Amino acid sequence: MTTTPAQDGLTATEAPPRPDVVDVDAYLARIGAERPARPDYEALCRLQERHLMTVPFETLDFTLGEVPSMRDTDVLDKIVNRRRGGGCGELNSAFALLLRALGYRVTLLGGRVLHNGKHYFRGVHNGHMVLRVELEETYLVDVGFRWASRRPLRLRERGVQTDPHGEYRLVHTPDGDVEMVHDGVTRWRIEMHPRDLDDFNAVLWYCATSPDMPGAGQLWASIVTPDGRVSMFNRVLTEYTDGVRTDYRTLTDDDEFLREFENRYGIRLEKVPDLAPVTEGV
């Protein structure tokens, strides 16, 4: 573990790159990206966008009663070799491995999200993971959240940051946390001190197994499209284009569900998981 001074005066604790673990070429092929000539801001933007548009957020493991693993070899196998997606911790920890192997300085940050932007922060601390990337200034990167920006967010910027997904603003709280506001709705709150990967394991187990967790045992899936996103909550499919809901339907037929899930998220299922009926999408 190495320690480097961050641009914002904080101390960034970084795990060393793991080129022996990360097959960079295979990972880049998985997200349809070229190897960058250098670890700069422009390349980071391309990598983040390609990741969001090719690797879905999905909680299939939760529907099977399985606890996902964030061990580096496990997340890389799941995302790169098996062409699956994963939860926020899996997606962001895997992306951190890729970025570090490409020469970026990356720190894991932990926090919590709002449930659909409507309720106060739910769940325990470290229920969400965000990456802090140090370049000429400090950026926040998130590839594991359906409301995430498609480009890195400048940590020091107090005003609106315009993005293909809307308007974003980072609010620095009096106690040192940072809240992300998307189109006027607060979506997550992140603590700024560095976290180790082990800090998230207990939370992942809780999210996968606790009946008190919102949506526990249910299927959540989302992926970015060129004009918006496609999300699924159990059998309810919702598509947004340019901020407008353009598709909203319940996939009651199993064959239709399996076909849509593969077409939208690139994941072939042998059968539909046992999903509880829901009346509202995401």
Number of strands: 15
CATH architecture of the largest domain: 2-Layer Sandwich
Number of domains: 2
> Portion of residues in helices?
25-40%
Largest sheet: 8 strands, antiparallel
Strand residue content: 25-35%
SS element count, helices? 7
Shape label? globular
Q: Provide the gyration radius in Å.
A: 18 Å
Order of SSEs = EEHHEHHHEEEEEEEEHEEEEH
Label the structural class.
Answer: alpha+beta
Distance between the termini: 39 Å
How would you explain this protein's 3D organization?
The chain contains seven helices and 15 strands. The longest helix has 14 residues. The chain has 282 residues and is of the alpha+beta class. It is globular and about 50 Å long. The strands form three sheets. It has an eight-stranded antiparallel beta sheet, covered by helices on one side. InterPro entries: Arylamine_N-AcTrfase (IPR001447), Papain-like_cys_pep_sf (IPR038765).
Give the secondary structure arrangement, pairings included:
Blueprint: E1 2-5, E2 11-14, H1 24-31, H2 41-54, E3 57-58, H3 60-63, H4 72-81, H5 88-101, E4 105-113, E5 128-134, E6 138-141, E7 153-154, E8 161-163, E9 166-172, E10 178-182, E11 185-190, H6 201-209, E12 220-225, E13 228-233, E14 236-241, E15 244-250, H7 254-265
Task: Describe this protein with a few key phrases.
single chain; 282 residues; alpha+beta; Arylamine N-acetyltransferase fold; 8-stranded antiparallel beta sheet; 5-stranded antiparallel beta sheet; 15 strands
